[in-house]
């Protein structure tokens, strides 16, 4: 959890730095888009901070209620698979925050892909859901801190949706500058462009289908490694 907190704090500081740089060099639509995207990223970092704090409190409750006469270290050793799953999910949230800020940095510089920023946001939401699932395995369903963690998770989900929305609208605004003007083209030129466009559509559709199949296989392997190897959805042997 400490590593995740550090990653989120670092990401938040970088976002603030990017915002200041953008204000210094960008104007008009570009500055407006960058400010909106970075503001939504800041909101997400704040939501993740709340999530991490809630997770820490719940983890402490779980250890205290489950260890009995054992030491904290002994509890973690006895429940090693659960501990690994929790740590993995927590690290994934911190990693997602770092990668998202990298993507945002490139976008505000005009060198990155808006789609990458959106994918990073979805990954953070997925990692957050995994963190809650890992925590629920050992938590008392009536635990107040579990309720706070679930609420914090919803906050992260809403914030990731905010990043996606600001990124989509920002991309739309930037691309509006490049309006398609065919008024000066002849009939022959229009026909040639139309054929080229049809070829591109077919190529992209084929590529999209192949990439969807690849994504499906990657997700299958991810769930296999994360779910089975780390035991998110099951109790450890020898524990109640």
Keywords:
240 residues, mainly alpha, I/LWEQ domain, disordered C terminus, Sla2_fam, clathrin adaptor activity
Question: What's the layout of helices and strands?
Answer:
Elements lengths: L1 H24 L2 H39 L5 H7 L1 H29 L5 H23 L7 H32 L11 H44 L10
Helix pairs in contact: 1-2, 1-4, 2-4, 2-5, 2-6, 4-5, 4-7, 5-6
Overall description:
This protein is an all-alpha fold. The chain has a single domain (2-181), classed as I/LWEQ domain (Up-down Bundle), CATH 1.20.1410. It is built from seven helices and no strands. The protein has helices at 2-25, 28-66, 72-78, 80-108, 114-136, 144-175, 187-230. α2 runs parallel beside α5 and α5 packs antiparallel against α6. The longest helix has 44 residues, at 187-230. The radius of gyration is 23 Å and the shape is elongated. It starts with a helix and ends in a 10-residue tail after the last helix. Mean pLDDT is 85; it is low at 235-240. One of its GO terms (biological process) is actin filament organization. Pfam families: I_LWEQ. Keywords: Cytoplasm.
């Amino acid at each position: 959890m400490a590593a995740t907190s550090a990653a989120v704090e670092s990401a938040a500081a970088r976002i603030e730095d990017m915002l200041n740089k953008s204000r210094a060099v960008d104007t008009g639509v570009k500055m407006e888009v960058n400010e909106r995207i970075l503001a939504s990223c800041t909101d997400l970092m704040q939501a993740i901070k709340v999530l991490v704090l809630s997770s820490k409190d719940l983890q402490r409750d779980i250890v205290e209620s489950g260890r009995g006469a054992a030491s904290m270290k002994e509890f973690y050793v006895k429940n090693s698979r659960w501990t690994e799953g929790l740590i993995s999910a927590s690290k994934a949230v911190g990693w997602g925050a770092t990668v998202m800020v990298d993507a945002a940095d490139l976008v505000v510089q005009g060198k990155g892909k808006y789609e990458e920023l959106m994918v990073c946001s979805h990954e953070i939401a997925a990692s957050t859901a995994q963190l809650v699932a890992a925590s629920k395995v050992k938590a008392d369903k009536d635990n107040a801190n579990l309720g706070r963690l679930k609420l914090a998770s919803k906050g992260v989900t809403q914030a990731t949706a905010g990043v996606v929305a600001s990124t989509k609208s920002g991309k739309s605004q930037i691309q509006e500058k490049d309006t398609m003007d065919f008024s000066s083209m002849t009939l022959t030129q229009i026909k040639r462009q139309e054929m080229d466009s049809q070829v591109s559509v077919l190529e992209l559709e084929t590529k999209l289908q192949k990439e969807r199949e690849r994504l499906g296989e990657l997700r299958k392997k991810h769930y296999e490694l994360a779910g089975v190897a780390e035991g998110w959805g099951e109790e450890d042997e020898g524990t109640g």
